[in-house]
Specification:
single chain; alpha+beta; Aminopeptidase; 5-stranded mixed beta sheet; 4 helices; globular
Amino acid sequence: MITNDSVSIRAVQTADSSQWAELYRGYRDFYELSPDDSIVERVWTWINDDSNEVNAFVATSGDRLVGLAHYRRFSRPSTGSVGIYLDDLFTDTSARGAGVGRALLSELSALAEREGRSVVRWITAENNARARRLYDLTATSTKWVTYDLAPGAL
């Protein structure tokens, strides 16, 4: 059993490749995305490319990765500030309820504070009830509705 005290958060490292990939495949499976190792490899390349905007924190328990958070900085013209956008947050099923998600959010909040960022923002699926319970306790739900426009649709 994993406890909150046994979870630590750090930047992802090159040696994390296989465990990170396992977690990321779990994330993609949770959201019913088609299995695609080329996407897993591409995102890993982005995370490890200093010129790419995508970064990652991982949660560890002992020598095992139990969670991940992919994030990037984004400009906010409406406020003239820069925020941190959380793209993906995932906790291994064996570690759910042990504070992994909260610890990852806490690290993102601390990063935003250290860097003088204006917000940490993310979206989640409406039916992701377990995650939303955590999010409702740690953040403020906004009035904004999200839309996706397909390239070339208009």
